[in-house]
Design goal:
With about 140 residues, the chain is mainly β. The chain is about 10% helix and about 40% strand. The chain has two helices and eight strands. The strands form two sheets. Strands 1, 2, 3 and 6 form a four-stranded antiparallel sheet that branches.
Length: about 140
């Protein structure tokens, strides 16, 4: 299986997550992130009248429990070696990050060696939060 080289790195200006792995052989790699604290990406919490998903236990309604897609990256591994995968946040996720939210993201790497149908996966969790720049701080003050 691929060997992770250090922890995932987060660009605090763009929200991009960078993974670095040592791949033992050629194949295809795909990495994707899922936001675990889904309500952090939603503007308001909506309840459905009828729902087949898990109940939230706080009333008659229910909420969807599926995680929100953070982003995805694909890479063709030509030869064994160390490669980086860059996962950029979706528009919806980036909007939540720009509002100052901290998101818990489960990042999964799926590696399929050439000539096989085997899927080797590795999962890790990373916290993503954008640093406020001087321009963002000024803009935030203007909104108050």
């Amino acid at each position: 299986p691929p060997i992770e080289k250090g922890k995932p790195r987060v660009n605090t200006k763009t929200g991009e997550i960078t993974l670095e792995y040592d791949f033992p052989e050629p194949g295809d790699a795909e990495a994707y992130g899922e936001v675990m604290n889904k309500t952090a990406t939603e503007g308001k919490h909506e309840r459905a009248r009828k729902c087949k998903k898990r109940h939230n236990g706080k009333g008659k309604g229910c909420i969807g429990s599926a995680p929100v897609r953070y982003g995805r990256a694909r890479l063709k591994i030509a030869t064994a070696g160390t490669y980086k995968l860059h996962i950029r946040p979706s528009t919806k996720v980036l909007a939540a990050l720009k509002k100052g939210k901290t998101l818990t993201v489960r990042v999964t790497l799926v590696f399929t060696p050439t000539g096989t149908t085997d899927h080797i996966s590795k999962t890790t969790t990373v916290s993503v939060h954008l640093k406020k720049t001087r321009q963002n701080k000024h803009h935030a003050r203007g909104k108050r």
